[in-house]
Amino acid sequence: MIYKIYLIDGDNGISLLESTFKELKKIQDDIITGFFKAINITIDIIQKAMVKGRRVNEMDRILQSEDSTIFIYYHPLSRILFCSISDADDNTDKIEEIIHKIANRFWKKHQSDLKNFRATTDKSRFQTLIADIENLTIGGKIAEVFPNLIVAKSVLEKVLSMGMIADFDFQVALQCTGKDSPLKISRNLNKKRTEINEILKKLEDLDIIKF
Question: Is the pTM of this model over 0.70?
Answer without folding.
Answer: yes
